[in-house]
């Protein structure tokens, strides 16, 4: 039986990363994001079809996330070298081009397993998106089939709802009143 993650401490991680311009390798840990909101998302593979649409859309919206005190970290089971090659390949050549957040390598698949998104028979992650609050509590998760991309607008809406401090009704939008504050 699957274990519930929402409402619990987010599973810890440390992974190698490549910067959004592909110029440097580093490491990222969950503790690096303490004090900020983290939009942490998994995608299946570099150099594919749906993945770059999501990554570049999140990158294009990075300033909106930063304005909400949120950082973004993308992760797949590819190596940091594959990530670097994808980032340094122009968008019009099936690359990402420069993006506004790092990509992490879960080459051991341990983080994908901890977050419940690993597809054992394929060796890749499902499209899982997690929002972790500044204290490290996992507040939101959505996991879907790899054929379907996610929505930046919905991610921003949910982040703002979580930050609103109250109960948010169906179809709540920023600026709407909460049911109870």
Automatic annotation (TrEMBL):
Record has Oxidoreductase as a keyword: yes
Keyword Disulfide bond attached: yes
UniProt entry keywords in alphabetical sequence: Antioxidant, Disulfide bond, Oxidoreductase, Peroxidase, Redox-active center
Boundaries of every Thioredoxin domain copy: 4-164
CDD domains: PRX_Typ2cys
Similarity annotation: Belongs to the peroxiredoxin family. AhpC/Prx1 subfamily.
Protein name: Peroxiredoxin
């Amino acid at each position: 039986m699957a274990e519930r993650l929402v409402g619990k401490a987010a599973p810890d991680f440390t992974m190698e990363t490549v910067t959004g311009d592909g110029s440097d390798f580093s490491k990222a840990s969950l503790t690096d994001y303490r004090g900020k909101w983290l939009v942490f998302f998994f995608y299946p593979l570099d150099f594919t079809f749906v993945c770059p649409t999501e990554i570049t859309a999140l990158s294009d919206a990075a300033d909106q996330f930063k304005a909400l005190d949120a950082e973004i970290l993308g992760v797949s089971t590819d190596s940091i070298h594959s990530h670097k090659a994808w980032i340094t390949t122009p968008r019009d050549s099936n690359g990402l081009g420069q993006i506004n957040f790092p990509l992490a390598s879960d080459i051991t698949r341990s983080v994908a397993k901890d977050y419940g998104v690993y597809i054992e028979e394929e060796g890749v992650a499902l499209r899982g998106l997690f929002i972790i609050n500044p204290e490290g509590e996992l507040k939101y998760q959505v996991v879907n089939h790899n054929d379907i991309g996610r929505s930046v607008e919905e991610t921003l809406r949910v982040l703002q709802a979580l930050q609103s401090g109250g109960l948010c009704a169906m179809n709540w939008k920023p600026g709407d009143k909460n049911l109870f504050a």
